[in-house]
Amino acid sequence: MDRYSIKRLLPRSLYGRAALILLVPIVTIQLVVSFAFIQRLYEDVTVQMTQNMVPQLELMLKTAPLGELALTERAQTLQLEAQLPGEQIEPRVRFYDLSGRAVRDTLRMRFDELTGVDLVENRKMVRLALQTEAGIMEVAFPRSRVSARNPHQLLVLMLATGALMTLIAYLFLRNQLRPIRRLAIAAEAFGKGQILPYYPSGANEVRSAGGAFLNMRSRIERQTQQRTLMLSGVSHDLRTPLTRLKLGLSMQEQSKDTDALLSDVGEMENLITAFLDFARADATEELELCDLTELITGIVSNAQRADQSVKLGQTPDHPLNLKLRPMAIKRALENLIGNATRYGTNGRVSVDALETAVRITVEDDGPGIPESQREEALKPFARLDASRNQNKGSGVGLGLAIAADIARSHGGSLRLAESEDSGGLRVEFVLPR
Questions:
Q1: Which of 6, 133, 369, 406 lies at a CB distance of 3.0 to 4.6 Å from 332, suitable for a disulfide?
Q2: Beta bridge pairs of residue 129
Q3: Number of helices and strands (H, E) in the chain?
Q4: pLDDT by residue, tens only, the chain of 433 residues
Q5: Other C-beta atoms within 10 Å of 213: how many?
Q6: CA–CA separation, 381 and 271 (whole Å)
Q7: Is this structure's pTM higher than 0.85?
Q8: CA-to-CA distance for 25 and 33, rounded, in angstroms?
């Protein structure tokens, strides 16, 4: 049923719907007034004026048998043009001439002798052909005597007034919607991690919404700053005893027990580092304009120098300048490359410049992730089955979660799929342009 719903035909934007609400009543009123006033009033006036001409035409019919001289004198008296004998007149009325049709129909109803009415040859004159005993009498008189003058003036006045009022309403509507657009832009930018200057304006309801947005943004900024400070303190408090413990174990005589304890301490350090990276994300980094292609090339080069089996695939041959947090992007891609080389033998990184987004793809030739578990894999501390984790190091389940969080903070997304080339995992890191 949704396919046939009228909602599919309506504009999607608030501006389009408001304009529709404004224009539909104006156009409807103009159509109703045009029909009721022009169709009815002008036709009635025309019929009445034509009926006033009937006695004069009847008098001309009575004068026709008296001869051409008497007919001419009577026509001059009645301010008519008459000719006897005259020519047959072809009935002609324009299809859009409403008052002309009223003249023709009224005369036909009153005169059986009427053989033709011409309102086309001369738009300012009415030409009639009447059958008399002496032959066809041709009569002509000004159109203004049977039809209301300048009926189009009402249409012109209505159209001009409607256009003027529509323009005024458009300007007023644009001023009312501008604060809503500014609020939407500020909210969208804040969702991407950008802080744009915004001041509430417009109607009271829009000002209230703008004030609520500013209060919300301030609370989120304060919470982010408090979280960053707290995590800095937690990082220091946790690392200090771990460092002392690691130093004490290294000074002990080497044995299986001390090696196991040192391994546990190292795993705890990795866990703390991964947790702090996830909780901190990119809260302390400012946006800056950078070339994404150059950034990714450097990340892959660093991974290759670290003996990670990864190569750079397809990349654009032109710079991709985007406003990003380069350290956060680097952290996310390093996690994805680390996962690719940990669970697979070889990894590949490629970049595609789409019309509205940039897609960074990281692929491996490992066992991949089943489709039913991909949503679970993006959750923090998610550990999948042994087929993917077997003999692959000490991952803590935060790599994909950190990358997904960084992508969302830039207004993008992280998608998991199966690699068509290697059969392993395909991770798409999408950023808006």
A1: 406
A2: 116, 138
A3: 12, 11
A4: 455 566 677 777 777 777 777 778 878 887 787 777 766 667 788 888 888 888 998 888 888 888 888 888 888 888 888 888 888 888 888 877 777 888 888 888 988 888 889 988 888 889 998 888 888 888 889 988 888 765 566 677 777 887 888 788 888 888 888 888 898 888 888 876 677 888 888 888 888 888 898 899 888 878 777 776 776 676 667 777 777 777 777 777 777 777 777 777 777 777 777 666 655 555 556 778 888 889 999 998 988 888 788 888 888 888 888 888 888 888 889 889 988 888 888 889 999 988 888 999 999 988 888 888 888 888 876 666 554 544 444 456 677 888 888 888 888 889 998 888 888 899 999 998 7
A5: 17
A6: 10
A7: no
A8: 12
Type of residue at 158: M
CA distances from 392 to 102, 158, 263 (A): 95, 79, 15
CB atoms within 10 A of CB 283: 17
Q: Scanning the structure block, which residue is given the tokens 């199966």?
A: 418
| Amino acid identity, position 429 | F
CA-CA distance, 235 to 238, in Å (whole number)?
5
* CA separation, residue 206 to residues 12, 189, 190 (Å): 20, 18, 18
